[in-house]
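Readers outside the structure-tokenisation community will struggle with the description of the input data as it stands. For illustration, here is how one protein appears when written out as sequence plus structure tokens:
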Amino acid sequence: MIEIKHLYKSFEDKEVLHDINATFENGKTNLIIGQSGSGKTVLMKNIVGLLDPTKGEILYDGRDFVSMSKREKVLLRREMGMIFQSAALFDSLTVLENVMFPLDMFSNMNLRERTQQAMNCLDRVNLVGSEKKYPGELSGGMQKRVAIARAIVLNPKYLFCDEPNSGLDPKTSLVIDELLHGITQDFQTTTIINTHDMNSVMGIGENIIFIYRGEAAWNGNKDQIMTSTNKKLNDFIFASDLFKKVKEEEMAHHG
């Protein structure tokens, strides 16, 4: 579990995050949603330690990340897996070598064990048979699956995904969502996903935090989102006509 308490972040005199409080539970897909420029990327960068908050606490299972020593932070980072917007794979390494990379860096396993662990993760993302290929030979969706395999190869307690579906078609996005959801449940990871993909929100949004102009403006799950009366949230979500229709039907049904 990750808890954010009274988190503020300013760049010089511009406040980007204001008094954010949030709880991200393990075994659940926790989503951070909001418009571009709302502060959700800055929030995630604070949580993983790429930025230091101006004030506030970030508790990893009760351990305050902000006040940790450098060495403690390094150790905690080993418990994190990260998936970025671009798959960020090494072009000169095969798929298998890409997935093994964190193991080569951080684990005490021998080569056979590292290979086996990497293959298990490739199996998990349905890529057995592609291990000898290079990233350039794969589609965007397959590259993303390699990135997921690499992110989970060290069995992280905490998994961070920044816009994992950006640039992918809806069908492939669904595959990625289901993968992330399945991994989260099976390994009981605390998974935090930054997204503005409404299909992800409605598909796997078990705990959703809506950031509006640097503040946590709403918190709930995918079912509660449909009946929310929060105007800012509704304006954000139902900007598309499809969701307006669904919302109207939902309200009529409940009314």
